[in-house]
Amino acid sequence: MNYRGFFVVLFLLSLVLLPFQTNAVTTKVVEINDQKQEEGVDHSPIKVASIQYNPTSKKPNKNIKELYREFEKAFKNGAKLAVAPEMATTGYMFENREDIAPFVEQIPGPTTKIFRKLAAEYDSYIVFGMPEKDADSNLYYNSSVLIGPEGLVGKYRKMHLWETDAYWAARGDAEVEVYDTELGKVAMNICMDSAYYETARTAAVKGADILAFPTNSSAQTISALPARAQQNGLYILSANRSNTEKGFHMVGASAIWSPHGEKLAEAPYSPDAENDINETKTIYGYVNPDHYRNENKEMLGERRPELYKELSQFIQPWDSRASTESQRVNAMALQYSPILGDKKANQKKVHRLIEEEISKAKDTDLIVLPELSFTGPVTGKSINTIYSLSERDKGKTFSFMSKLAKKHKVNIVYGVIERENNQLYNSAILLNEKGEWKGKYRKTHLDNEEKRWATPGDSLPVFNVEGLGKIGLLIGDDVRFPESSGVLSSKRADMIAVPVSWSGEYSGYMEINPNLSENQYPDNAVVLWDAVAIGAQAYTIFANFVGSEQGFKGSSGLYTLDPLYGLDQPVTGSSKHEEAVTFELNTIQAEHWFNQEKLLQSRHPLYYEPLIQNQNIIQNSAEAK
């Protein structure tokens, strides 16, 4: 066949095959479109807005007109969801029920009807806070509303009240609900709710993609939001005020947070009443539906509800097992670069560091070592090799550490690959100052690498140690699950020790406006480490490796109860160098405005039930809706 004849045949063959090729391409496009339709989400990025608005006290007509104008501006600028502050229609400070009575109304009611027209006109969604009157009970609530093109989508009654609310409002009487919208699944929390990880967590386990957060915050509640975003894989839109009402100053700094805890946008910060920002400031960001499914949200499937049952218990105010005396503790987080897999070399290093540092920091009460202290992580090693590095809980490493504890009269927490009945565990061991065995914790939330070789633990214990009080233990990735430290708090841990081997694979450094905290965080303070201490109201010590071929990021140190309002100061070590990070603390802050006792007394376990349900129950419930 000549070349011309060959190309003629080729051309004719292409004409025959073209319909089949076209059909194949068409089918692929249809499948993709069908998938998008099934998911019910437009996957193009969605512009959203947070409106930092300052209402005039007891002037609802004026405030509603101004809010209407600000929402309309946001929608004309392309926003499809806009959030305004808590109690945005009336102002925040009221003396009692009589004081607020002229301004409460039912939901739905006149105000929601006004904004329904606006949402319909711009095919958009609106969230803001307002005082609500229940038609049947005549109780008042600090509520928020979600209004869409079809009208009122849903409402939320603030669950965790601050003192100002409690003078007139009843506690929210229902769980956090999640609402299906054209933008994704939306939930609402209000202000003080973010001090309790349970509210955002409940939204997340029910499938929320976006958390709208109206607030009137002086620092605490908006500072918690990066952790709430990271813990749950949520976009969070916070809308705060930036002025002063009846002596209460709100700091602004409204923000939009990504599911990884990244700050996408922030409004101006107002430090004090002399620097009030009365004019409205609106910020914009983008929510990407492709990011609704992210690794942080996927972690929800790794929860262990069977371990969290204590979260449903409410022992206050009669908890006689709680510590009553504050303990002065001198502690040390040991940070070093491990020789991976070489137990003897690491023992020598630990011995040298302890001998050197205790001579400098006398009267040390507690030393915490990193996760798997003498092997380092065993990523990629064969099961046989890992097994050869394991030992029984009172094996050679125990003998070695017991001698050090006894010699220096110091309590020690260290990590080992523990072996029992041919099963391996990532364990942390607690020794007292006499070198005696005080307790053991087996890591309960394993990462994917650990699942290859380790068996998860089945409890979250707290141990009584003379001179320290009650101490709880966590390990590594456990900090991604706030229920873990929540259980330790409910068991009244005064301190938590956390051996870790962190190289940046989860969480990140604090991105809150540094001015929010009276005692500023160190530059390398880690978001989820701070969330453990503040969320449990227990001083928390992290010990991490540094350097090595795995690039550990150090930053070991102490995370505290309340640097925001000047009670205490977090302390972290270097992210690059070996060192012993030393610090002092007093374990119980009974007189502070917020502490573990007040945290536990103001929880609402009845509405945390989704957190202790079997995961399948939650999933089925979401599918049913």
Topology, element by element:
Blueprint: H1 3-39, E1 46-52, H2 60-76, E2 81-83, H3 97-100, H4 110-122, E3 125-133, E4 140-148, E5 151-157, H5 163-166, E6 178-181, E7 184-188, H6 197-205, E8 210-214, H7 220-223, H8 225-232, E9 235-239, E10 244-245, E11 248-249, E12 255-257, E13 263-266, E14 281-287, H9 295-298, E15 328-335, H10 343-360, E16 366-368, H11 383-389, H12 396-408, E17 411-420, E18 423-431, E19 437-442, H13 448-451, E20 462-465, E21 469-473, H14 482-490, E22 495-499, H15 527-536, E23 539-543, E24 546-547, E25 552-553, E26 557-559, E27 571-572, E28 579-586, H16 596-601, H17 609-612, H18 615-624
Parallel strand pairs: 1-2, 2-3, 7-8, 8-9, 15-16, 16-17, 21-22, 22-23
Antiparallel strand pairs: 1-14, 3-4, 4-5, 6-7, 9-12, 10-11, 12-13, 15-28, 17-18, 18-19, 20-21, 23-26, 24-25, 26-27
Helix pairs in contact: 2-4, 10-12, 14-15
Structural features, described:
- With 625 residues, the protein is of the alpha/beta class.
- Helix content is 29%, strand content 23%.
- It is built from 18 helices and 28 strands.
- The strands form six sheets. Strands 5-4-3-2-1-14 form a six-stranded mixed β-sheet. A six-stranded mixed β-sheet has the order 6-7-8-9-12-13, covered by helices on one side. Strands 19-18-17-16-15-28 form a six-stranded mixed β-sheet.
- It is elongated and about 75 Å long.
- Residues 1-38 and 616-622 have low confidence and may be disordered.
